[in-house]
Amino acid sequence: MRSLSLLPTLLSLTTLTNAHFLMNYPPSLEGSNIDEDKEPDAPCGAKTPNLSSDTTTTDFHVDGDFIALYAGHPQFNWLYRASVQEVGEGNWTQLYPILQQSGLGDLCSPLVKAPKEWVGKKGVVGVAGVGGDGTLFQCAIVNFVEGTNAKAPSSCTNSTGVTASYTSDASLSKLVGEHVEAPAAPTGTEAPAPTGTKGSKSAGVVVRGGGLAALGAAVVAGVMML
């Protein structure tokens, strides 16, 4: 009987592990029911956002907010981008240097910034990821608000053994407008691993190839500044 009681949990873990990637914060348009077959569909996977009709939104602070992801492949390159228009080719703005995640599991990036002139506007935050099986997409509808989000969401965790570094990726760079100058990667020495935020998933995202000295404090709400 005990083995039967574990079956739902095991099935849930299998589904999570098999997912290409999950956008946990801001919450994806697809929620936790990701259609993996349509994740390669630009610009947002199975659901295309509609700024006129989509009413479920999350506040995104332009001076710094969180993007929390789950990687179902051992390596991903991530592009964080956003738009305050109905999304299409060329009207995306890059929010952060391209990151390369090594290791399966959770990665949380705090202090992801957006243009200050977007305050008061509704828009889309999109993540594009390259993990060995093409480019994959997910998006969230947000309200851009002023200030910095000082409270990490519960989904903002870093799995043990996951590392991240700043990188370049031509296939991702072409997914933002040519007129947009990508933000520069922070400079400095390698940052120390942070203390954790959530049980066994908590320890240690180390940023290499740039560090975080130029961004100030290395830990925000117990999570590495990525």
TrEMBL record:
<keyword id="KW-1003">Cell membrane</keyword>
<feature type="domain" description="Copper acquisition factor BIM1-like">
    <location>
        <begin position="18"/>
        <end position="161"/>
    </location>
</feature>
<keyword id="KW-0732">Signal</keyword>
<dbReference type="GO" id="GO:0098552">
    <property type="term" value="C:side of membrane"/>
</dbReference>
<dbReference type="GO" id="GO:0005886">
    <property type="term" value="C:plasma membrane"/>
</dbReference>
<feature type="signal peptide">
    <location>
        <begin position="1"/>
        <end position="19"/>
    </location>
</feature>
<protein>
    <recommendedName>
        <fullName>Copper acquisition factor BIM1-like domain-containing protein</fullName>
    </recommendedName>
</protein>
<feature type="region of interest" description="Disordered">
    <location>
        <begin position="31"/>
        <end position="51"/>
    </location>
</feature>
<keyword id="KW-0325">Glycoprotein</keyword>
<dbReference type="Pfam" id="PF20238">
    <property type="entry name" value="BIM1-like_dom"/>
</dbReference>
<dbReference type="InterPro" id="IPR046530">
    <property type="entry name" value="BIM1-like_dom"/>
</dbReference>
<dbReference type="InterPro" id="IPR046936">
    <property type="entry name" value="BIM1-like"/>
</dbReference>
<keyword id="KW-0336">GPI-anchor</keyword>
<keyword id="KW-0472">Membrane</keyword>
<keyword id="KW-0449">Lipoprotein</keyword>
